[in-house]
Amino acid sequence: MRPIQKSNKLAEVCYEIRGPVPEKARQMEEEGHKITKLNIGNLAVFGFDPPDEIVQDMKINLSNAAGYTDSKGMFAPRKAVMHYTQGKNIRGVNIDDIYLGNGASELIVMSMNALLNNGDEVLVPAPDYPLWTAAVSLSGGKPVHYVCDEQQDWFPDIEDMRGKITPNTRAIVVINPNNPTGALYPVELLLQIVELARQHQLIIYADEIYDKVLYDGAQHVSIASLADDVLFVTFNGLSKNYRACGYRSGWMVVSGEKSHAKDYIEGLNMLASMRLCANAPGQFAIQTALGGYQSIDDLVGPGGRLLKQRDLAYKLLTEIPGVTCVKPKAALYMFPRLDPKIYPIADDQQFAYELLAETKVLIVQGSGFNWIAPDHFRVVFLPNSDDMVEAFGRMAKFMESYRKRHGASF
């Protein structure tokens, strides 16, 4: 029979966080191996539970969640998002500017589907959260990666960004706080990005899903709060701040210069209607989450579990010879660098395979985040301290063996 081929639109689409190496890990688990999964920010499996009041509210309202909701979402949770947005100093947002979704991921794809024609370009960071690159490609666009500079705390290189704007460029994606690097951008840098968007009439897509996962007293500023004459589309949700990944409850907020975007907004409305609505049980969690006690502050503050585990993971990683890392100011990840002189890696996916096979530790290779060289990888610091000591200890032994096999010495 004639083979059934996947769509050509998927040719440039990849999502290595759940790619071939994790698939190998799944097979190993089926064979009885215990895998330490440092590949994905899935908080619940590491004992980070959502606030009880969110769970209870969903239970109480479950009997009311069987019907379709408004295509953009229920009024009460959207109003809660509106108030949250006002608290972030984003002006001019009303209920109609807010879309609830099955996680921010669904809305990211929707936002690109509504915008892009074949050949349109979108500036996406390198490294990036790979869904952004995939969503641009799947929508017929061309992702153009601007460099984030590791030597400057992983901040976007504004001149590189400027040099990659062409007549086909439609938008700039800003992931802040950043996944995978844990960087948090200062206002001065955000203002430069806004100015680029202003000069070239570009949309800014702001992924802010980690805006409460902040360490050492850091403060997050929403880029959409910095101007009214640029179109912003801001994404957030319950997955990370409220440890509710599986609830698939996120939102998208359109703000700024909307008068010139009526046709685009009509496209968003059309796509929102086509999927009928976001899941209703997840919507019931939003108002309680945003208006309740913000327990994330306890986890990231002094003595908090996430803060302690970040510090431990940083110490264990940077003690490995030839491994350096910018200490994250936010989010759940580290993106360490392997000195190419000591670790001459040609294929970082193969490196991740070998690490998994020998240590039973699952990471994501840097190329999975569209990084430009095979010299980085991403880990989460979510396992408890004992498990991290064990996992990074095995990783250190693997690295030592790797150095010896490749003739590296100190």
UniProtKB/TrEMBL annotation:
Assigned EC number: 2.6.1.2
This protein's name: alanine transaminase
Family to which the UniProt record says this protein belongs: Belongs to the class-I pyridoxal-phosphate-dependent aminotransferase family.
Keywords: Aminotransferase, Pyridoxal phosphate, Transferase
InterPro entries in the record: Ala_Aminotransferase, Aminotransferase_I/II_large, PyrdxlP-dep_Trfase, PyrdxlP-dep_Trfase_major, PyrdxlP-dep_Trfase_small
Cofactor needs: pyridoxal 5'-phosphate
Record organism: Duganella radicis
Residue ranges of domain Aminotransferase class I/classII large in the record: 34-386
Domain of life assignment: Bacteria
An example Gene Ontology molecular-function term: pyridoxal phosphate binding
This protein's record includes keyword Transmembrane helix: no
Gene3D superfamilies, per the entry: Aspartate Aminotransferase, domain 1, Type I PLP-dependent aspartate aminotransferase-like (Major domain)
Pfam families: Aminotran_1_2
